[in-house]
């Protein structure tokens, strides 16, 4: 399905004088925040094309920053909204992770485009460790403005890796009540990481756990448990 | 300067946070604190209408012989009350910083219900970092 014409709610067509909204009804249209059609249009059939977010250059916002305060309020509302609709902590984390997945999916595409668009031989990571490093530095820097603090490999399990953030910016103002102590709101970050890994072809189950230490009370571990086929492929590629 | 205590009163006059720092004032029961906060809320409402030149933000400082209470009213109606020694010059700036901590650690915390008692480790930690034991040079 192709949009030759922009969808009608983005354009205002003023075809004849009967389309003009009488002043008495003007207040009812302001709710939809559409601009009132101009009375004396010369070209009566030409639709007014509005620029949308998709028309903007992608690199324009590359170094733009989002207000951390505004995001904190949005994230807080997201958690409150989700919490009203779930039955337990696991369910809450899963839903936050689903939201993060949708962010990650888009971010991987945007990030690859931004880093590889100028390159003559665009590439993508096909081995796991470079991909993990890319997540640790590039993804973290793009999403949170700083690289993550550490990468660790699990001692017990070969398929488990951890990305550690000592002070995740998105949960900086969140105090988890005692009765929910197992909750980690970084589930959103876990979802982002899961989507990026998925998009690069490393399906994994990613979860977030808070592992406080004295110096960093909000230290968080993003635990990556790779699927078997990824490990097998990595072995085969050696 | 000595900081004896901090109260946060919500816009309905309920005491949502109360914490003591330095010794020096008699400690009351939690019920007495609630009554005191409610009374202060009422007094504040009356003083804000006393001004001869129209609207006023109400009582700002109440001084006693041994201590004073500095009241900071936010535009949403929440009141922060700081009980300090008489010679304390920095109560106003401290209150501003407390308001900042409140905006960060209480309002942005999804597990805090507005207008309800504040139970947030983050807020406690920020206040501790700000006031400490209440005694400073």
Characterization of the model:
Chain A: It comes from Sphaerobolus stellatus (strain SS14). Chain A is of the alpha+beta class and 238 residues long. Helix content of chain A is 38%, strand content 10%. Chain A has 2 domains: 8-50, no CATH class; 62-237, Muramoyl-pentapeptide Carboxypeptidase, domain 2 (2-Layer Sandwich), CATH 3.30.1380. Chain A is built from 6 helices and 4 strands. Chain A has a 4-stranded antiparallel beta sheet with strand order 1-2-4-3. In chain A, a hairpin with a 6-residue loop joins β1 and β2 (160-165). Chain B has 137 residues and is an alpha+beta fold. Chain B has 3 helices and 5 strands, in the order ββαβββαα. Chain B is globular and about 45 Å long. The relative contact order of chain B is 0.21. Classes of the chains: A alpha+beta (238), B alpha+beta (137). The interface between A and B is medium-sized, with 17 and 14 residues.
């Amino acid at each position: 399905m192709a949009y030759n014409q922009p969808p009608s709610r983005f354009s205002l067509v003023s075809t004849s004088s009967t389309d003009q909204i009488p002043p008495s009804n003007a207040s009812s249209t302001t709710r939809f925040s559409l601009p009132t059609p101009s009375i004396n249009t010369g070209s009566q059939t030409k639709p007014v094309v509005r620029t949308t977010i998709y028309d903007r250059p992608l690199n324009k916002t590359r170094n733009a920053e989002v207000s951390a305060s505004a995001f904190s309020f949005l994230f807080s509302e997201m958690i409150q909204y989700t919490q009203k609709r779930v039955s337990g902590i696991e369910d809450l984390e899963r839903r936050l992770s689903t939201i993060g997945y949708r962010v990650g999916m888009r971010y991987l595409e945007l990030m690859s485009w931004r880093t590889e668009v100028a390159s003559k031989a665009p590439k993508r990571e096909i081995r796991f460790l470079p991909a993990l490093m890319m997540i640790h530095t590039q993804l973290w820097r793009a999403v949170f403005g700083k690289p993550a603090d550490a990468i660790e490999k699990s001692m017990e399990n070969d398929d488990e890796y951890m990305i550690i953030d000592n002070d995740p910016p998105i949960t900086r103002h969140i105090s988890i009540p005692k009765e929910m102590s197992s909750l980690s709101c970084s589930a959103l970050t876990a979802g982002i990481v899961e989507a990026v890994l998925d998009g690069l072809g490393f399906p994994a189950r990613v979860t977030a756990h808070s592992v406080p230490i004295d110096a960093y009370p909000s230290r968080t571990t993003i635990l990556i448990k790779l699927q078997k086929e990824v490990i097998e492929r990595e072995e085969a590629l050696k | 300067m000595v900081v004896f205590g901090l109260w946060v009163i919500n816009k309905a006059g309920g005491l949502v946070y109360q914490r003591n720092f330095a010794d020096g004032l008699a400690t009351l029961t939690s019920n007495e604190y609630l009554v005191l906060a409610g009374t202060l809320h009422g007094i504040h409402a009356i003083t804000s209408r006393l001004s001869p030149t129209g609207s006023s933000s109400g009582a700002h400082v109440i001084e006693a012989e041994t201590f004073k209470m500095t009241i900071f009213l936010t535009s949403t109606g929440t009141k922060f009350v700081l009980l300090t020694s008489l010679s304390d010059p920095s109560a106003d700036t401290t209150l501003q910083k407390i308001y900042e901590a409140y905006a960060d650690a209480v309002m942005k915390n999804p597990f805090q219900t507005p207008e309800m008692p504040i139970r947030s480790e983050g807020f406690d930690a920020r206040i501790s970092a700000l006031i400490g034991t209440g005694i400073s040079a």
